[in-house]
Structures are given as C-alpha cells and as structure tokens.
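Why does residue order matter? Because the sequence determines the fold. Keep that principle in mind as you read this record.
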Amino acid sequence: MSDILKQHRDQIDAIDEQLLKLVNARAAHAREIGELKGGGPIYRPEREAQVLRRLVDLNGGPLPAEAVTAIFRSVMSNCRALEKALTVAFLGPIGTFSEEAANKQFGGLSSPMQCASIDEVFRMVESGQAHYGVVPVENSTEGAVGRTLDLLTATRLHICGEIELSVHHNLLSQSLDKAGVTKVYSHAQSLAQCHEWLNSHLPNAERHAVVSNAEAARLASTESGAAAIASLRAAEIFALNTLANNIEDDPRNTTRFLVLADHDVAASGKDKTSLVIATKNVPGAMVSMLEPLSKNNVSMTKLESRPAKMGLWEYIFFVDIEGHHQDTNVKQALAEIEQRASFVKVLGSYPVAVV
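Structure:
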C-alpha cells in the first residue's frame, strides 16, 4: 500500500511542477496582453466568461464545473493582479453573502472595500474610489431588492456582470444548543427566507432585523442567548457555533447580484441586457412597448415594476432581455421601444452568469 501511495504522490508532485510552470507562463502572456492594450479596463467580464464557458465545455471530470470555474477564476484574478489590484466595493462587513458573491466573481479580492449600505457601494464606484461594485438585485424566494433597482435608474454606472449565488443559511450562536436561544438576529430577507424553520424550531425566540447577516453574527457573538442567521464564513470570523445548517425554507434559494462599473462591456456570445422603461399614459401602452421584442425575436427573461416616485400610481418597468445591445435584433428592438416609450435607459449588457 505504501508503494502505491508513493507512486500516486510522486505523480502529483510532478503534475504540480508542470502546473506551476504553465500557470506562470499564462501569467506572462496575460501581462504582455496588458501592456499591448496600453490602458483601458483590466477586468474584462466578456473575455473571462468566454474562457470559463470553454473550460466547462472541455471539462471531462472528475472535478465538477463549479470547481473548474472557481480554480480558473482564481488563476485569472492573480494574473490581473500583476497589472493592478482591483478595488471591489460590496455591502459589508466581511462575512456577508455580498462579499461571498464578490469573491466568487473576481476569484478572490485583493483590495476589498466594505460598505455600510447599497447606496455607498454605488457612491464608491461613481466617485472612482472603487473600480467595481457588487450589489444584490433579487432573490429567488423574496423577489427584487428595491433599493438597488431605485439606484440603477439614477446612476451613470453600467451593469457589467451578474452573479448567481446559492444562499444557504445557518443558525449560529455562542450557545451549544438551540434550547438556549431566546433571540435571533439577521437581515430582514434572511429572516423571511427562514420563516417556516424558525416557526418550527424556535417559535418563542424574538426576531430582530439588522443591516446584514455579518452584523447579526457580530451581535450574536456579544450576547448570551442570542443567535444569528448567517453564512459559515461568518461563523468562522466571529467564532460562533453552528447549531443548524441550511435552514432556508427553499433549498434552491439563490440570490442574484450585479457587478457595477463605469464602462460598458463588449459582447461575449451569451449575454443579457437590462433596461428601465416608462410607458406613456395611453391605452395599450404596455403591449405596444413589448411588441418590438417579439417582432425582432428577442426573448424577455424578466419584467419588474417599481413606483416611479414622480406621481401617484405611476410606475417604471425593469426588463431583462437575452442578447447584447449591439446585437442587430436587440439594437432594432430597442430603437423601436424608444419611439414608443416615454423613457428608456439601457442599464448595461453583460455576460450571462457562469456557474
């Protein structure tokens, strides 16, 4: 047995040496490309999406697609860092799902910027203090994040990427048993996503909504009898015990995040475009607004209404469609919509999320 183990370990050592040489060779090419570009964005979401999709298609296992993309995102992140460290703003503190989403998209954060609110994430990118921002926009259980949608209507920033993060909630506490929990802290959406579990397992515990799950974990670490609904990373950061895992009511619970930047993104071959539209106050306005999509064979994947805040019972609509705004059919559809709507703003075209 020891001889067989040694053979495998010797092979692993040899492969590791090859990997080291190849990764450094890749980094050298990436640095040369950076110099040839002579400025411009270092992070190219469309190019990275193309690379990841190609590798997922080529993958024969045993590593799953999620592991392959995580490995190569980290490789690309470290190659980018040879040119410049990117500052990425997200809703903090450390230990939030926003930080987890940012880490997933960028392959790790060399210069993370924790923000106290979604508003601050927008401000940091708009002011140039951060290169990119990551904000939640919708949850599969609880729906849209209204504040993000409201800010998108006014910002000059572009959406340059999206992240889909499977969200698993855990009950964390100083206590060693659920019986000692009298109070539960968490973000309001997380409390809602675990509503039935809390009713069944902690029906008498007080529930307190706080600004983030990481803040909930911090509070739970300072109070006897308190617990938090948060990530396992938050448990590590605040030295809390995990009393229950995956307590979300819907096991498919997923949150979608957007990546914000001050620049547009080229087409990747599999893209999505987000718009905000206001209709004219005439009969059939909504049907007229959507007809160009059907006419030009453009698929709509989302339609969300929000109060326009310009008059009582007036609304604007957030629309996601398949394709890039420079695609011929999408470009034609948008031109026709602009003629029919009272207001149209393209929020960005960006690669569809890669696993």
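The chain has a mean pLDDT of 92.
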